[in-house]
Design goal:
By secondary structure, the chain is an alpha+beta fold. It has three domains: about 260 residues, GROEL, domain 1; about 100 residues, TCP-1-like chaperonin intermediate domain (GROEL, domain 2, 2-Layer Sandwich), CATH 3.30.260; about 150 residues, GroEL (3-Layer(bba) Sandwich). The protein contains 17 helices and 21 strands.
């Protein structure tokens, strides 16, 4: 082989970025995502208008929604999206915090890389700092229990602050807390909350203050016949996972009828079978029937004659929630239906909302599944209120499950940074620089809040650090008043889980991105990964670099 001959190991058109270029591009992509959502943080956070290929519009300042709707292609930027998704799934709130923190950790790491510090040293320092941060957060958390209703409402209000629903946040936070308290269960001394048991239905029309909590369920279905009662009081509810109609034969069958009387007998038999099904329902004592399958026209007639309210093709998830709310058991065979399988509700009513009929199952005894009906002037308003409600529900649930809360407004971050800096002095070596960079990164949250309030960010941070050095660990940024103050007294409180999860997810994502020194994108016909830094971000993100 001739010396110096080039050896090709990648297909033609493959893209490869190595060393510092790869790190620079990845960090730039992640920072661009973080910068996009950074302005949405806090009570004075701004909204983003996201327009998709079809022209559909989403207006929001919810971090998770923004990064998911942005249609990001760059692989490093996708890792930041994963951080937001994890935060949203684990806690339900704090996605913006997690994304901003990831961007700032990478930004400060870049400065260390430029000073010639090896990525693995930065990664090790970040890992040590993240472990210490979790330890510190556990010690600064304040206890919260189910009966602390005022504290739980403050958590819900903090989660909603800055969203479009702020004008009615007292009412909405009350709904969120009542809903969570209703579905919470104590297992082995620990509170367990399944957020799937709180169904959030939204309908435009009316105002946000018309939103309500239903002690039971709202189902987006109407009664199958206008002859059925529109409202049933003290309803005995049957849940059936079977069709109230005659099934077609399993195998392909051909029935030959040679005499008109045979046809009549055939139809009579079919009618008798349907009547028998309805008789079984009536005999059980049911006054309301929900079925996952269909209801035959003839069955509808018989059910209406018996004064029974029936809805068909109810979603499986709604059937399961109805079982939890009413205490009914879902029957797959009508022959097994009896009075002990029935559930109870104070009333079942068909209500017309925004031109659509919906069924309200109200007044259940101690339901373990409830519904919140969100109202608002327009579709975009309702969507944003729903996102705010989801954040509030997630925040309250996270606070109760862990049993600890921290001061909001950047107070927890300032205290965390202060204690991490103290810890870094005991570490020594080059890792100390990375641990200090981690502490600086955490302060991006109070810095951003101060900037959004129009305050001098550096002066604010200096004042807050001074207050925390004096033991005032509740001091944070009062964004609306453009000053600093005690967050705990002001009722600006967040679940501890938001902070622990954000620090964990952000530091792990930053470590993962820093360890990459080679990006190889195999070419596929029609294009592979976009070349270099920001090219793959899409949606006008190129200018963010």
């Amino acid at each position: 082989m001739a010396q110096g001959q080039q050896i090709f190991i990648l297909p033609e058109g493959a893209l490869r970025t190595t060393g510092r270029d790869a790190q620079r591009n990845n960090i730039a992509a992640a920072k661009a995502v973080a910068e996009t959502v950074r302005t949405t943080l806090g009570p004075r956070g701004m909204d983003k208008m996201l327009v998709d290929d079809l022209g559909d519009i989403v207006i929001t300042n919810d971090g998770a929604t923004i990064v998911q709707e942005m249609n990001i292609e760059h692989p490093a930027a996708k890792m930041v999206v994963e951080v937001a998704k994890t935060q949203d799934e684990e806690v339900g709130d704090g996605t913006t915090t997690a994304v901003i923190l990831t961007g700032e950790l990478l930004s400060n790491a870049e400065k260390l890389l430029e000073q010639g510090i090896h990525p693995s040293i930065i990664v090790r320092g970040y890992r040590m700092a993240a472990e210490k941060a979790d330890e510190i957060l556990q010690t600064i958390g304040k206890d919260v229990v189910l009966k602390d209703e005022k504290l739980l409402q403050q958590i819900a209000q903090t989660a909603m602050t800055g969203k479009g629903s702020e004008s009615s946040k007292e009412k909405l936070s009350d709904l969120a807390v009542r809903a969570i308290k209703q579905v919470s269960e104590t297992v082995d001394g620990k509170i367990k909350i399944d957020l799937d048991n709180v169904k959030v239905e939204k309908k435009e029309g009316g105002s946000i203050s018309d939103s309500e909590l239903v002690q039971g369920l709202i189902i987006d279905k109407e009664r199958v016949s206008g002859n059925m009662p529109k409202m049933v009081k003290n309803a005995k509810i049957a849940l059936i996972d079977a069709a109230v109609e005659v099934k077609s034969t399993e195998t392909e069958a051909k029935i030959q009828i040679t005499d008109p009387s045979q046809l009549q007998a055939f139809l009579t038999q079919e009618e008798n079978m349907i009547k028998d099904m309805v008789d079984r329902i009536v005999k059980s004592g049911a006054t309301v029937v929900f079925t996952q399958k269909g209801i035959d026209d003839l069955a509808q007639h018989y059910l209406a004659k018996a004064g029974i309210f029936a809805a068909r093709r109810v979603k499986k998830s709604d059937m399961e929630k109805l079982a939890k709310a009413t205490g009914a058991s879902i029957q797959t065979n009508l022959k097994d239906l009896s009075s002990k399988d029935l559930g109870f509700a104070g009333e079942v009513e068909e209500v017309k909302i925004a031109k659509n009929e919906m069924t309200f199952v109200r007044g259940c005894k101690n339901p373990k599944a409830v519904s919140i009906l969100i109202r608002g002037g327009t579709e975009h308003v309702v969507d944003e209120v729903e996102r705010a409600m989801t954040d509030a529900l997630g925040g309250v649930a996270a606070a109760l499950e862990v049993g600890k809360v921290v001061a909001g407004g950047g107070a927890a971050e300032i205290e965390l940074a202060r204690q991490i800096r103290k810890y870094s002095g005991s570490v020594g070596g080059r890792e100390q620089l990375a641990i200090d960079a981690f502490a600086d990164s955490i302060e991006i949250i109070p810095r951003t809040l101060a900037e959004s309030a129009g305050m001098d960010a550096i002066d604010t941070l200096v004042k807050l650090r001074s207050d925390h050095d004096k033991g005032k660990d509740g001091m944070g940024v009062m964004v609306l008043e453009c000053t600093t103050g005690d967050m705990l007294k002001a009722g600006i409180i967040e679940p501890l889980k938001i902070k622990t999860q954000a620090v964990k997810s952000a530091s792990e994502a930053a470590q993962l991105i820093l360890r990459i020194d080679d990006v190889i994108a195999s070419s596929k016909k029609g294009g592979g990964m976009p070349p270099g830094g920001m090219g793959g971000m899409g949606g006008g993100m190129e200018d963010m670099d």
